[in-house]
Records
---
Amino acid sequence: MTLADYFSLEETLAYIQSLFDLGEKAAGTKEELEATNLIEKEFKKLGLENVHRESFPVVSRNYKDCQLKMLEPTVRTVPCVNGGTSVSTPLEGVCADLIDAGFGTVKDYERLKKRGVDPKGKIALIERSDRLTSWLDIFCRLAKNLGVEAVIFTTFFSEHRAFRKDAFLFAPIPVINVPYKVAQSLRDKMRTQNVKVELKNIIETNENGVSYNVMGELVGSKYPEDIIMLTAHYDTWFGGANDNASAVAIMLETAKILSENFKPKRTIKFIAFGAEESGSKNFFEWSVGSFEYVNKHPEEMKNTIVNINLDIPAFGDTVTLRTTPEMTTFVKESVKDLDLETIFKVTGMPITATDHWSFVMCGVPSVNFGSHTPAYEKIYHTNFDTPPNVSRYLLEYSSKVVLSLTSRLDSADVLPYDFLPTAKKLKNDLFSRRVKARGVIDISRLLKKTRKLKASIQEFNEVKSGEIRKNIRLLNRSQLEVCSLLNRHVIGTGDEINKDAAWVVAEWLDMLVKLKTAVETLQNNNLEEAIKSLSSLRTMNWGLNVNLKVYNQTLDLMTKNSRYPGIYPNVMAEMLSLLKKKESKKIDVSKELSSIETEFNDKLAKINAKLSVLEEIVEESSQKLMQMI
């Protein structure tokens, strides 16, 4: 029998139901604590060692009364839910006329004003658009800036239900969510009649809340200091059967199978994280438990040979396995050996939206199981995320892949990392930009060292399974150090936060080239090209959809408080000024040219410094690999 043959669908579904029955498990609430107790008890029951919990501070929100009542032209109750992380209304609620603010952009409000509608003192109905931004609090900030009293969100994904997530993050105004069909009926009424509503959004917020990470382990017999880490978050919006009770259930079932039928050579650690959905005082307020854990255990991170994180692993018809690049070859081979290539899509591109990003930031080799598909949006963060909507098929096969990855990594004496994808991507990014970057920044030294790294990796791959085995311990330590060096310095959040993680070198170079182009075109009074170049530099796709005050306020919050730092050019003011000058046909752009030149020189200095560090990292990685040959 293989380990996968011990999988029990009935036991896994029972775990899901037990967690689901606790209800909404928001960070720091008594329901989340009940889930903590349940998981800790189960870890002990399964015979795991060193079972314990660790506390950490969170912002805790208890979602209480949420009501929306139409007062005019008729009186009726409208179905709704509280918006996540928004502020509370007074206990008596707010009462105001309802306005249709479209998608909530500055242009939408301008159109309202042209029709004689002043948003001040009103309640705005806004349709969410991920195309404009996934950061709904930005449009809440704009609404507040324009004097709106409260916001009602809807989305075309929510046909007959309402989302909890639609106020993220830290909306400075009361927010509720209504089903899409309900929103359209309200819009129909507003076209011909005045609509007045009463809105209540009562949320108890505790700035001094507490959440927990729960852990247990199977201690290895041969390499106990090496850690294979299986993780999943257990806090939820609503009952969260898919997000994320299914993941915790797979982790518990895996722990049961391994504890009863497997004697690991390496230590296998199981961690259930609290406060993944919400709970930080930081602008990026998710993945709090994992972030707290990796920062509390830096030495453990150095010994973690892989983090396998589960987040929505059993919905729809496919599961995406997002890996750090050195894990891609191994994960693809494992999926192929199981003949599951049609179900599991492997990509060497981490994601910032789950707990595995906390490990990526530390340089830990990582794999994330997820199913964030358009189809899932229909139940994502709603009370329709129930046990019947969990795929039994994917529950079983995600479990099989987890067991396969775990057992294969445990049994491998030489860790199966492949650094070639990293070196190839880095070299291709540099080579393809060498002409455009010429005269802007010198990348020749880094390109030369990257070619050397690629050659070293190719030579290392040829010999590491042969005579090098006599130095297995030293070899694996060196490989882990290379993982940490490369992952921490070549993987970043990308040019739009909360989008898929990017290769930061390509982003930096493209940014510099576009800034330089803007400078040169302005010197030639070519406004069209300058605006086009600056437009492509907007760090958020919402840049032109809010006013300058909201843009700068949000960007300031992100860059000063981010757990995901980047290099963002703030060119919004210059761009708006250029647009106005273009419209008024004034072409004296000396002030704008000076400002953009300053921005370019600042970014050039910072990126030169970062590329110098990367040169050292690439050289050090190459040397570590060659020492083992």
Note: The radius of gyration is 26 Å.
---
Amino acid sequence: MDDVADSVKSGRHLAAHAPTGIGKTAGVLTPALEYALDNGKTVFFLTPKHTQHIIVVDTLRKVHKKYGVNINAVDIIGKQWMCPHGVKDLSSREFNEFCRSKKKDETCDYYNNTKKTKLSENAREVIAEIRREPVHNEAVKKMCSAKNLCPYEVCIEAGKTANVIVCDYFHLFSPQVRKAFLTKLDKKIEDSIIIVDEAHNLPERVRSLLSSKLTDYMLNRAGKEASSLGSRQLVEDYKNLTKVLKKLCKGMTGRERFVSREEFMEEVKEAVKLSYLELVDEVEGLGEEVLKIPGRFRSYSKSVANFLDTWKGDNVGYARILQKEDNKITVSYNCLDPSLSSRDVFDNAHSCILMSGTLIPLHMYSNLLGLDEARTAEKAYKSPFPRENRLLLLVPSLTTKYNMRSEFMYQKYAKHLRDVISSVPGNIAVFYPAYSILESISRMTGETGKEVIVEKQAMKKEDRGQLYNRLLHARGNGGAVLMAVQAGSFSEGMDYPENLLDAVVIVGLPLERPDLETDALIDYYDFKFERGWDYGYIYPAMNRALQAAGRCIRSETDRGAIILMEERFRWANYRKCFPTDFEFTVTETPAKYLEKFWKKSATSGN
């Protein structure tokens, strides 16, 4: 709290690695809000999780109730997820085009009921309710639903006088969205205190926001749009663009290759009668017509036009890649450098606080995001939780290194897992680097004496919820083994409160053979920072492993064990990614330590 107070007072930034469960939300919000209220600033709390939105709003409500402080807060999730139309299956770009078209043509009743010419009386009533005390976004949607209003527009109007705005990364880190968002709110980036939650996710999210792709499937669907509207020329153009993708694939020895901006544009120029810019305009125009059709929420032509326009962009900081897999062709324009957008935010904001339980190494995130070194403090805070509540073990003879993968190695893993699982009294989660390795090792593990719960690839949210409920039920019934992957929903997106997990096992590192995008990242970071292999490959994999390891100890009362089954965790370059208080015992007999740990726990009554 002192470091945050110093940062916002002096107009500096703070990059903070701080353990999960210590109360980061309240600890950061309190000094930031205090300064904002006294100095006419706006606090933007950015988080990718809807559950975190709830925590922030609840924290603000408690402050409001306890101290009587007049906090005007607005909770804004993505416009698409607030929209009363059934549009959740659209991509973000498709939705934005749909929304813009509906407003332009004055065919959205929700928008018209809110502010067709001026703010309606019903909208004013809901806004007054929002300003009375902090409320969750779900509550706002219910209020608006009762009066057929647009929840997003209502929140924007309420946000014009807000002290705190809770929103997503893309609201400020997507250049186009940022400009429109701040303009509609009547806010300036210079008067903003920006809190970035789960900041380890920010570089990849920003890169994704600045990337674009085109597939043969998109062209096929766009061709059907052109046909339905009687545009014979564009039907032919879309067919010719598909032929361009196929032509570019000829002679490929692998499933992907780099393609230059000029190579693609020259092929397009030869294939269609129009110039490249004329083609973009024609495709854009057709997309507009498609969105005017009643009941049409998506236009593939708009998506094609967006890609063709984006493709004209810079080469530096981007990779252009052609992929062919399972008869699907994709050409992508991938951003490698998140600072192309994030630097503008950090350079112009009054103060920024970046926080995460796995923001290590701190200097890597500062470098990748373009934080000004002279203006940024980097702090790693040690866990205040009792050390005796956590057992850290490392089994050194195991690895999922590519050239060491074999049935013999997987059998060794299986034996250790059987011993470990039988030594843990309750629930245990085992996180693997890939689904293929999960299947191979779990098949050899055999009977464990516990219910086995397995994450499957491409699981739906409802299916994951069912697995989670099985884990809850198993806690008082001998426990279960959750088999899941690192960098998956169970290892990062899921919380395990009230000591739901007694132990977590990390099987190997999620380091697969680099694809072309990873190769491009390594080369670019080598050019820019001389740390290509670390920043582009090793450290991101370590972060995913640490995220999974962090599922066990979530509060000062939790007690559990973390077992690392990977010899590379002992290597110096990999150790740099561990928190300084992450000290493990190296052993080939982890079951012995686990039995002793849980026996001591039972004796002490914890």
Note: The CA atoms of residues 110 and 149 lie 5 Å apart.
---
Amino acid sequence: MTETATQEQIEETARKGRERLLSLQDSRGYWAFAVEADATIPSEYILLQRFLGRAIDPDLADRLARYLRRRQRPDGGWPLYAGGPPDISVTVKAYFALKLCGDPPGAPHMARARELVLSMGGASRVNVFTRISLALFGQIPWRTAPAMPVEIMLLPRWFFFHLQKVSYWSRTVIAPLLILYAARPVCALEAGKGVEELFSLPQDRIREVGRFTPGRIRKDLFLLLDRGLKQADGWVPLTVRRKAVRLAERWTLERMQGEGGLGAIFPAMANAVMALKVLGYADDHPDMVRGLRALDDLLVTRGDESFCQPCVSPVWDTAISLTSLIEAGVPRENDAVRSAVGWLFGRQITVRGDWADRAPDLTPGGWAFQFENDMYPDVDDTAKVLIALFRAGVLGEEERREALSRAVRWVLGMQGSDGGWGAFDVDNNRLYLNEIPFADHGALLDPSTADVTGRAVEMLGMLGYRKSDRPVARALAFLRREQEECGAWFGRWGVNYLYGTWSVLAAFRQVGEDMSQAHIRRAVGWLKSRQNPDGGWGESCRSYEDPSLAGSGESTASQTAWALLGLMAAGEAESPEVARGILHLVRMQDDKGGWDEPQFTGTGFPRVFYLRYHGYRQYFPTWALGTYRRLIVSGATAQDEARLAPSADPFRFSGR
């Protein structure tokens, strides 16, 4: 017989989770939890200060160094995610940063790191972005990095490569980087501060990135183009280069006027201030001051450690926290709910951004991820915000209807030609660009994905859209095509198949899909088969490299919640698997009403960059417990958010 949690246990666990989440709300109405990446970001922050000539506070340097040391593996390396294998690029940057902080190369932890790097082939084996960092400090020649001529700024839109043909995060990183490529600056280091000991051959003999591979014709052609561009670099007329630099400068400045920095992501923000430095901007120039402040605002101090976040996530955190609290039984009239609703409406973006290049007639109305990132709202956040607002009862508020209308129309207008949704742009899917030498991370683009599409469909379902409505029908066809043979769906923005499968099942349920259909039952069967003996679910970031590991890993609070929400959406609230999963969450809650989760369950870029959202371990379990409590413990019928449909008729737009 399956052991289950008692009603009293469920009520108490849900209450503690709800109260803990409420206690973490900012007085201004939002939630903002820390976002933690691998050791690369704090290491790059340290390197950036040296490049800019900024004196880093000794106490801050100590805290950053302590953070890095404590995340080193016993073998000397640093991983891409907690519990992962050593990564040579992360390890080289962490070693370099610690050396700049004063750690002697003879210290045991530094010696272990150095031995590991050399055993992996030496620092010449690092990825493109680490090569660029090393070139900025004269550790390798600039010629060893892939060609990225600033004249890219002058290319016509019909050309095979153009900034608008790559993702938002790529273009915000690339544009200021082109200025650095044109200048090829080198920050001189004092003797002994370099990392020449990490190379297995002299730095001036390091080969260019990429090797010719038989059978990879397109990739080899791009390598030939890379070599040719480097040979032709000296022949570019100076007037042409200066014009291109001015365009890159103007592009960068126009997009870093807000308080959040260029793109509101660390790599782009760091490149932007370095580019301005190279262009001669003084440290007290308003654009430089604002850019530096945005970077410093990413620092987080916990105890005797500090780290630098890759970005902040208040809109995302607030939308999901609001959803979780309402599902957990907090009344819509509650002050915390109304405060969060007001804050979210205050963050709606009503100016045009880069997305308008592919949707020029579309009226703005979305939300971004961060406090401020007006040029780059995204479909995922916008849909998530709308879902939270609908749950909060705003559809009955006449003064909010215009804002909601703009947002819904914006999401519909961002639907791709394949029926799916990408995050930031329409049809950003020229996959051949992932084969250029610069794109060794394989994440240059922003195509439609199952998880974002699922979120958009779920939102539309809450407005009364059904599976026969054209935007939804197109999206469901896309989702059926994207289903894996095992029954799961890939998760682009969360780890991984557990995340994607929950997102899609919630969408199917919300638009009235028959949950007894074969493709749904395959997904349900897969979720049940992935449950761990302890009753929870977990999935390692390794599943991005090896799909056979889909749904396999140590149980985590957030991934258990995703699996439970997916199963409950599929009508499995009364199943023994759900009961065991709820018991797992009950048992794993701590005395403060939270859950421990050291694992990385968020995704920046599959295979190369992962995230630990500190809020995931709090609001997702609270959400799952609240939903279970509503469906089972409180004796409610399996009603879902479709109950909002009658008041949503004016929002049934045709879309693209």
Note: The CA atoms of residues 253 and 441 lie 26 Å apart.
